Structure formats: structure tokens, C-alpha cells
Inverse folding.
């Protein structure tokens, strides 16, 4: 099929090796041109992310594994030993791998969305550098479609798979949108800051920050546009907050059931406590208060595990979509091999048709000229379709290009320059 | 025409609704966003088919489809489905479609079994004011039943979140906030419709200078209902109760509405058929 890939990812290599192999945008253009010029390649695309570096090639002839490893080593400066663990796929296997990558099935976090954007970006870079060919164009466009289809038709990307995103998923499941809701942040450490990023991205704008060291609270408050409040948070703060996110390093709970109950008397709507601290910041009795939800790190880990299991179940359905896409692509490819012959056939028949119509049209009344033209076109279409169907069938079902070759020769005229080109392509395919 | 309006179209409606219900149940176990969009679109066409039936009945019998129990049941199903279609366009409620759709299918079947062709039309349902009163009451009832569905959804999701159960219901139900908004919207609209409808009926009776027995006995449960709804609406408006308790009250209310509406309908059509 003339497509092959070599690469390393999180399954084959350590993070150090992956870092070393990663190609920044400034180096990819040069690497692509190198690939196109120093090997028997017609096309090249490089996909380089923090978790994988992969080269997709469309060669005239498949090279040996050693040559491919040398190529990867050349452009990434990995040692021979480091590239020895690289995986190599050819033809259908390469396509299957590409479609699995775009679908998030090969990602470290199963079903993650980012890889699809990264794949698109890699393809567009190759397009800008003019290093793609017909096969790679089709393969990458199908990969992007396949990635989208998998995400639309399965729930593989649904459900949070990190503690911070699970906290936001829970908050949105309770409140719908987080826009217009109040968040009280207790603690100003790394965990609290990370969680605020996710919440801010979900539309939270009203913040209060409570921290033992007020200066740190002020830094975080300035960062997120909130205001500093007392530590531990007061009844008033707890009555105000819809979501309380706590992540301090205190050894004793900083939010007690008594204070929450007191705050609760002044509010009727639901309240969510996200306790991301170990040991816990919020007294466990808080969960018994009506319309109050208390979630801890353990709960979120359970949520993440459940979501992962659900994604794994969906992966089975996603694999079927990938498999079907590979089959469709293979079918397209088999048909595409005879496309030059079909074009040649159409051109020859069309020129004959035009010549014959021009020669005989005077025999008919002027009013009938249109009808003659339509009739001749319909006739030629019937003849062409008959040949095209047989050509495609021989290529697709019997993997036989000899009929296409014979037809190309039969259709060739003395002054036809294109015929050599078509024959060369067919010979090339036959050699595969 | 007789056959089309009372048999063919209703059978088509049952088949289409049943098919759509099966489709949504299939999607519950095999989530697929593209197919969900198709199912939603199909639901919209179904609501148009309902409209066609409604128009057909009105044109044919020169009366709204409220002349016997069968028509009332189907009309209630139509209203529930229209309300559901409207909400579906505003909030992606996905699997919450199954419950109202099942109710619609049951109502359509019950309506067909009871017969749609009116044989004995009670005098109390004839006339423009009576028709308007009945239609508005039915719309109000549909709204209140909707608030019960959203209340039940809220209670289910609340329970799932408290129990740390992150299964299908957790994934497929809309958020608690969205369901609460919808529950309140349907409750307030239902209350308004029932109150206006009752005011019209009472006004009409006052204008006539008296009332016959069947109407008064029919009004008793309706007045009780209006009182209970008003109390619940006030509790919701002023947040006298916690959200979970309000949701529970909505579920109880919709159950009560069903009982009272059955009593009312029985009163009008069976005890006083003419």
C-alpha cells in the first residue's frame, strides 16, 4: 500500500527518551524535507507530542527496519539503542495505528481529545512544507474523520479521568453551568491553584480565598480576581459559597459541621464541598447535612476509576470503527490504483465521441443536435462504466492489475506521452 | 375521514411513538451522539404528526379533541410530547426523554382502547368556554406531570451523587441545576394554567347564576388540587423547603394530579354521560 510508520511512545520509551525525541515546530520543517530528499519517499508527516514521536512515510518501495530506525535516529538524535524499541508498521497495520492514534485509543489517557488537534497540526505542517502525497493526504484526512467519528459515536472521551477535572465534572453535574456561582477556596497551595484553573475555565468568576498565610491568599486572589477572607472561613463565607474547594496541609479539619450548619441556615440551595486535602479539611459529618455534597480525594479517585472502566468498554466499539475505516481506506486504495487507466479511457472515448459527433452532426436537423450530443454522451458513459466496473473488480477482488496494464497499452496512441507514466505507476504497484 | 382521524392517524402515532421509545432505550445502552441527534429530529417530526392529528380532529368534529375519555388521554399525550420537544430544544436532556415518551405511549394506547370516536357527548364539555377550560386544564396537568418527572430525575441524580454511583444515570441525566430550573418552570406554568382555567369555570358558573351538581362535584377535586399547587408554588418561590424536599413534593403532586384528574374525568364522562 506504500505507507509505513516508525515511532516511539509512552509504551515503548521512558519520558527522557521521549523528551529527547520530541521535535519542536522549528525543527519539523527541516526534518520533513530531509525525509523527502534522503530516502525513496514520496511523502512524509511527522507527529511529535510529549507522549510520542512518529514518522509517517509513503515510500516508493518499503525499506528495511534498519533503514527506518536509522532515519528516526537521524532526525531525532536518538541513539541506536534508543530507537531499537521503536515500533514499525506497514500498510494496513500502519493505517490501523494512525486511526487508533487519532481516535485516542493509543493515548496514555484513553480517549483524550488533544491528540486529534495535534494530529491535524502535524498534517497541516506537512501540507505547508508540501511533503505529503495523495496517499498520505487521504490517510490523514480519514484519520481526522475517524477520530471525530469515534468521539461522536462512542462515549470514549466522556467522564473525567483526573482528580481536578473530576471535581469540575461533579460541580457541573450539580449546578449545570458554573457561571454565576460562588467558589470559596481554602488553601493556596499547588493543588488548590491547579483546581482553580479548571474551575475558572468552567466559567467561575466569584471567588473568595481563605488561607492561613494571608500573603499567599492575596497572591492567589489576585491571580483569579477574587478577594481574601478570614482563615478558617466564617459562617458568612460558608453561607455565600456554592462550592467550597479545600486543599490545605492542616492536620485537623478546618471546616466543621457546626460552621457549615450555621451557614446552611442562611441558604436553601445546594452546596458542594471538594476536599482535596490529605488529611481531610472538612469534617465527614458535613455530608449528612441536607442538600450538601462532600467529596474527598478518595471519592474522586473512585470516580476516575469508574470513568476509565466506562472508557475501556467504549474502546471496544471504537476499535470497530477504526477497523471499518481501515477496510474502507484499503478499498479506496485498491480502486485508486486503476484511476489513471480509467482517466485515460475516459479521455480517449471522449475524444472519439467529439470527433464522431462533429463529423456526423450535419446529417441531422439543427433541432436534433442537442439530442445527438446527449445520446452520444450517454452511450459513452455506458461503455465507460462497463470497463470501469471490471477494472475495479479485478483490482479490488483479485488484486490483479494486468487488465489495467493491457488496457493502458491498448488505448495508447503513438504520440501519447502520458502512457509511459501510467505504465510506470502500474508496474510500480505490480512490484508491490 | 372518520377512519383516518379516529383510527389510522392514532395507530400511526402509536407506532411512531413506540418506535421512538425503542430507539431511545437502545441509545441508553449504546450511547451515540449522532444517533441521539437523529432521534431528537425524529421526535420533532413526531410532534408535527401529533399536530396533524389535532388539526384533523378539530376540522372534522368542529370541536377540540376533548369530547370523550379516549380523546382526552390522547390530547394529554400530545401536550406532554410538545412540552418535551420544546424542552429538548433548550436543554440536552437525553435519557430523560424515555420517561415522558413511555407515558405518551401508554396514554395513546389507553386512548385508543377507550375509543376516540365520541358516542355520547356530555353537555358540560360543549361550548367554547368549556372547551377552553378543558384544554387549559389539560395543558396545566401536562406541565405538572412534567414537574413530577423532573423532580424524580432530581431525586435520582441526588441519590446517585450521594452514593458515589457514577453509572448510566449519573452520566445521562441533565445536571441537578438544569432539572431544578425545568421543574420550577413547569410547576409555575402548570399552576398558572390551572388557576386561570378554574377562574374561567367559576366565572362561567357565576354568570349562569347557579350550577348543576356534576360540575360542582367535578370542581371539588380541582379546587383541592389548585390549593395544594398554590401552597407548593409558594414553598418553591420563597424557598421554604430544601431543594431535595421540593423535588420530592413535585413528584407527590404529580401523583396526586393523576389521581384527581382521573376522579374528575370519571365524574364527567362515566357518572354523567349525557
Amino acid at each position: 500500500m506504500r505507507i509505513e510508520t516508525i515511532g516511539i511512545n509512552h509504551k515503548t520509551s521512558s519520558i527522557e527518551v521521549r523528551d529527547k525525541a520530541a521535535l519542536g515546530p522549528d525543527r519539523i520543517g527541516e526534518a520533513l524535507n530531509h525525509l523527502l530528499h534522503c530516502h525513496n519517499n514520496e511523502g512524509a508527516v511527522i507527529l511529535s507530542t510529549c507522549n510520542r514521536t512518529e514518522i509517517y512515510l509513503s515510500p516508493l518501495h518499503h525499506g528495511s527496519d534498519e533503514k527506518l530506525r536509522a532515519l528516526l535516529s537521524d532526525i531525532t538524535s536518538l541513539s541506536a539503542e534508543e530507537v531499537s524499541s521503536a515500533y514499525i508498521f506497514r500498510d494496513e497495520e500502519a493505517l490501523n495505528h494512525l486511526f487508533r492514534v487519532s481516535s485516542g485509543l493509543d493515548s496514555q489517557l484513553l480517549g483524550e481529545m488533544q491528540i486529534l488537534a495535534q494530529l491535524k497540526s502535524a498534517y497541516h505542517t506537512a501540507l505547508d512544507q508540501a511533503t505529503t502525497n495523495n496517499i498520505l493526504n487521504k490517510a490523514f484526512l480519514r484519520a481526522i474523520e475517524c477520530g471525530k467519528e469515534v468521539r461522536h459515536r462512542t462515549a470514549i472521551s466522556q467522564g473525567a479521568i483526573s482528580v481536578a477535572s473530576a471535581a469540575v465534572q461533579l460541580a457541573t453535574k450539580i449546578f449545570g453551568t458554573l457561571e454565576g456561582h460562588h467558589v470559596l477556596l481554602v488553601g493556596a497551595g499547588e493543588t488548590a491553584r491547579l483546581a482553580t484553573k479548571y474551575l475558572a475555565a468552567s466559567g467561575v468568576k466569584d471567588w473568595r480565598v481563605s488561607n492561613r498565610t494571608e500573603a499567599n491568599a492575596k497572591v492567589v486572589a489576585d491571580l483569579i480576581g477574587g478577594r481574601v477572607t478570614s482563615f478558617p472561613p466564617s459562617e458568612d463565607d460558608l453561607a455565600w459559597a456554592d462550592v467550597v474547594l479545600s486543599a490545605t496541609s492542616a492536620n485537623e479539619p478546618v471546616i466543621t459541621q457546626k460552621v457549615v450548619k450555621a451557614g446552611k441556615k442562611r441558604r436553601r440551595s445546594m452546596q458542594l464541598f471538594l476536599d482535596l486535602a490529605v488529611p481531610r479539611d472538612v469534617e465527614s459529618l458535613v455530608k449528612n447535612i441536607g442538600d450538601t455534597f462532600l467529596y474527598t480525594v478518595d471519592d474522586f479517585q473512585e470516580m476516575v476509576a469508574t470513568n476509565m472502566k466506562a472508557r475501556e468498554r467504549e474502546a471496544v466499539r471504537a476499535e470497530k470503527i477504526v477497523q471499518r475505516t481501515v477496510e474502507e481506506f484499503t478499498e479506496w486504495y485498491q480502486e485508486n490504483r486503476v484511476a489513471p487507466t480509467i482517466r485515460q479511457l475516459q479521455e480517449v472515448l471522449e475524444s472519439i465521441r467529439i470527433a464522431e459527433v462533429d463529423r456526423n452532426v450535419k446529417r441531422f436537423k439543427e433541432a436534433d443536435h442537442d439530442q445527438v450530443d446527449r445520446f452520444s454522451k450517454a452511450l459513452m458513459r455506458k461503455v465507460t462504466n462497463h470497463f470501469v466496473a471490471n477494472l475495479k473488480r479485478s483490482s479490488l477482488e483479485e488484486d490483479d492489475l494486468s487488465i489495467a496494464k493491457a488496457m493502458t497499452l491498448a488505448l495508447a496512441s503513438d504520440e501519447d506521452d502520458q502512457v509511459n507514466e501510467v505504465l510506470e505507476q502500474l508496474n510500480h504497484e505490480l512490484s508491490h | 375521514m372518520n377512519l383516518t382521524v379516529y383510527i389510522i392517524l392514532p395507530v400511526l402515532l402509536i407506532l411512531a411513538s413506540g418506535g421512538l421509545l425503542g430507539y431511545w432505550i437502545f441509545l441508553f445502552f449504546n450511547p451515540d451522539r449522532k444517533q441521539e441527534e437523529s432521534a431528537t429530529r425524529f421526535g420533532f417530526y413526531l410532534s408535527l404528526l401529533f399536530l396533524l392529528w389535532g388539526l384533523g380532529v378539530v376540522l372534522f368534529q368542529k370541536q377540540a379533541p376533548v369530547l370523550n375519555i379516549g380523546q382526552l388521554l390522547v390530547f394529554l399525550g400530545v401536550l406532554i410530547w410538545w412540552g418535551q420537544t420544546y424542552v429538548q430544544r433548550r436543554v440536552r436532556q437525553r435519557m430523560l426523554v424515555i420517561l415522558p415518551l413511555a407515558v405518551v405511549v401508554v396514554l395513546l394506547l389507553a386512548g385508543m382502547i377507550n375509543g376516540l370516536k365520541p358516542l355520547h357527548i356530555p353537555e358540560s364539555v360543549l361550548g367554547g368556554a368549556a372547551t377552553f377550560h378543558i384544554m387549559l386544564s389539560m395543558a396545566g396537568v401536562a406541565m405538572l406531570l412534567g414537574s413530577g418527572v423532573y423532580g424524580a430525575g432530581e431525586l435520582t441524580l441526588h441519590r446517585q451523587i450521594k452514593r458515589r454511583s457514577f453509572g448510566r444515570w449519573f452520566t445521562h441525566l441533565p445536571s441537578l441545576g438544569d432539572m431544578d430550573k425545568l421543574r420550577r418552570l413547569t410547576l409555575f406554568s402548570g399552576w398558572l394554567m390551572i388557576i386561570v382555567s378554574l377562574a374561567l369555570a367559576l366565572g362561567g358558573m357565576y354568570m349562569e347564576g347557579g350550577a348543576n351538581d356534576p360540575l360542582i362535584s367535578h370542581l371539588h377535586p380541582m379546587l383541592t388540587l389548585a390549593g395544594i399547587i398554590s401552597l407548593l408554588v409558594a414553598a418553591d418561590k420563597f424557598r421554604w423547603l430544601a431543594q431535595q424536599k421540593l423535588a420530592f413534593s413535585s413528584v407527590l403532586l404529580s401523583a396526586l394530579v393523576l389521581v384527581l384528574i382521573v376522579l374528575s374525568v370519571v365524574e364527567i364522562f362515566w357518572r354523567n354521560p349525557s
About this structure: Chain B touches chain A through 26 residues (CB under 8 Å). Chain B is about 80% helix and 0% strand. The mean pLDDT of chain B is 82.
